[in-house]
Amino acid sequence: MSPAPRKARSEAPEAEASAGGVAGEPTAAGTRIIKKYPNRRLYDTQTSSYITLSDVKNMVMGCEQFVVRDAKSGEDLTRSILLQIILEEETAGVPMFSTQALAQIIRFYGHTMQGLMGNYLENNIQSFIDLQSRLTENSVKNLQNPLMQNPLMQNFLGGYMEQSRTLFTQMQEQMSKQAETLMGNLGAGLTPKK
Fold first, then answer.
1. Burial category of 181 from C-beta neighbours within 10 Å (exposed 0-12, middle 13-18, buried 19 and up)
2. Higher pLDDT, 156 or 38
3. How confident is the model at residue 146 (pLDDT cuts 50, 70, 90)?
4. Residue 71 has pLDDT above 90, yes or no
């Protein structure tokens, strides 16, 4: 049986002396470093091997902490890689976002409410994750009593809807305050000087 072929020296990245950040950019201890090379290949410094986008998706699914950095510049490319995974998921199977929802999200880019919308979506997703966690925990506890599941489900969904409503109300209040400030500034600029 012949030994596994070794990577060609010109293809393999330089030895990873440290798992820290690149070019003075610190990375949290325990965070996995993935380097992206110009040939679009991803290199996992923890396993010293090339990986695929599917492997990165598995890291996300496993809740592993990682950062993707450009091998030459050290630029953080994590968001770009995560967006690639979302694009693949959206085109491969049953999409999570409708065309209309995606168009609405795009319309918020460059809008004065962009930051508020991002916070609203992030908080709402976190509320949904918390709800899912509580549902899973309680469904295990109440497996012997199926009659308890229906009221519990209603209670949890009611709580989620209330959290969502509260977040939306907070976003509306922030938008109203920003509009008042904007109108106040516009009004001050339109009053004639004496």
1. exposed
2. 38
3. low
4. yes
Q: Which residue has the tokens 């004065």?
A: 112
Please give the DSSP secondary-structure letter assigned to residue 109.
Answer: T
pLDDT attached to residue 54:
94
Separation of alpha carbons 174 and 117, rounded Å: 11
* Side-chain-side CA neighbours of residue 71 (13 Å): 19
Region 105-120 average pLDDT: 86
3-state SS string over 17-61?
A: CCCCCCCCCCCCCCCEEEEECCCCCEEECCCCEEECHHHHHHHHH
Written as one letter, the residue type at 35 is: K
Other Cβ atoms less than 10 A from the Cβ of 84: the count is 14
> Any residues with CB less than 8 A from the CB of 157 and at least 6 apart, and which?
131
| Encoded tokens for 100 | 């209309």
Confidence label for 170 from pLDDT (cuts 50, 70 and 90): confident
Q: Mapping DSSP to helix (H, G, I), strand (E, B) and coil, where does residue 67 land?
A: strand
Which residues, at least 6 apart from 56, have a Cβ–Cβ distance to it below 8 Å?
34, 42, 66, 68, 81, 85
Tell me the H-state helices in 53-98.
53-61, 78-92
Given a contact cutoff of 8 angstroms between Cβ atoms, the answer to whether 127 and 163 are in contact is: yes
Look up residue 126 and give its two tokens: 């976190």
